[in-house]
Write a structure and sequence with these properties.
Length: 291
């Protein structure tokens, strides 16, 4: 393991500056719109010529591919067990968007062999070098593996709705992650708002709670309105930013994604150093007790 750590460190240094950003999309409460946000956000990033890969972390095969009218046959599991190459478990969406089904493939592996672990690191190294953004759509249910992943990614987008229960759960989720890694960059987003003020209030409550109880500053991504086009787009299996580009939610999503690319893009790259890197963290967590 020590040799591998050294090898990895060397590789990371070689590729400094050109690494993609890894981002997990989470919520405390389920059903708040993570998958719909992820696929539409990813679609806008891809339309802006960014290379984007979405990794579906939901249990089972997940469902992100359904939202874009595609199918998926294999998951990361077949890659980890050595049956398939990484390219064989990656699927093409529109523009430069690609997706991988990761969920059950990962969580049902009970015994991680050293080869599997090496393959995992190799895969993420490849993703970091190949893509500008690696988005993890975190599903329901906190498996050990997904908690490790959350501790490793560069940034976290936390989605809440304006309901007090969802806000409380979003706060608990951030607290949990913050206690594992106090350096983590959080972005908060309020989905399904009925008024602009409702979104602002929710985001302020969340940001203030983080500040007051954890002395942690979070970035505000903004809010997305409740909009019937979401449901229509899900049915049509075409992201709403494509099928309903003039809807308020789509316009807001374009603004949000542009702000994210332009204002925040440089920050993490500048912060990224060997010790804080996604891969080294993942490696650190997975190799505990293995050395
Ligand atoms: N802004 C919105 N306006 C209206 N409906 C929404 C909105 N966001 C999500 N939904 C609906 O909420 C449900 C859950 O969304 P989904 O993205 O699957 O959530 P999650 O991935 O968090 O479980 C879906 O039926 C979707 O159509
Ligand atoms: Mg989902």
């Amino acid at each position: 393991m020590r040799d591998q750590a050294e090898k990895l460190r060397m590789k990371m240094m070689e590729s400094q500056g050109s690494l993609g950003k890894s981002i997990a999309i989470v919520s405390g409460k389920g059903g708040v719109g993570k998958s719909n946000f992820t696929m539409n956000f990813a679609t806008v990033l891809a339309k802006a010529q960014k290379k984007v890969v979405v990794v579906d972390m939901d249990i089972g095969m997940g469902n992100i591919h359904i939202l874009i009218g595609k199918s998926v046959q294999y998951s990361l599991r077949e890659y980890l067990t050595g049956e398939l190459k990484i390219e064989d478990v990656m699927y093409d969406g529109e523009d430069q968007l690609q997706y991988i089904s990761g969920g059950s493939g990962m969580s049902t592996i009970l015994e991680w062999s050293e080869e599997m672990f090496d393959r995992l690191i190799e895969a993420f190294e490849y993703l970091q070098k190949t893509f500008d953004y690696i988005l993890f759509d975190m599903g329901a249910g906190a498996t050990n593996w997904s908690l490790d992943l959350l501790a490793s990614v560069d940034e976290i987008i936390v989605i809440s709705t304006a309901e007090p229960t969802a806000i409380m759960d979003a706060y608990s989720m951030m607290k949990f992650i913050h206690l594992k890694d106090a350096q983590k960059q959080f972005y908060i987003l309020c989905n399904r708002t009925l008024t602009y003020e409702e979104g602002q209030e929710t985001l302020q409550r969340l940001a203030k709670a983080m500040q007051k109880f954890l002395q942690k500053e979070v970035a505000v991504l903004g809010s997305l309105p409740e909009d019937p086009v979401v449901r229509k787009a899900v049915k049509a299996q075409v992201p709403f930013v494509i099928s309903y580009p003039d809807a308020l939610i789509s316009k807001t999503m374009y603004q949000m994604a542009n702000k994210f690319m332009n204002e925040y893009d440089g920050e993490v790259h500048a912060q990224q150093n060997q010790s804080r890197n996604f891969l080294s963290k993942l490696k650190g967590i997975f190799s505990k007790g293995r050395d």
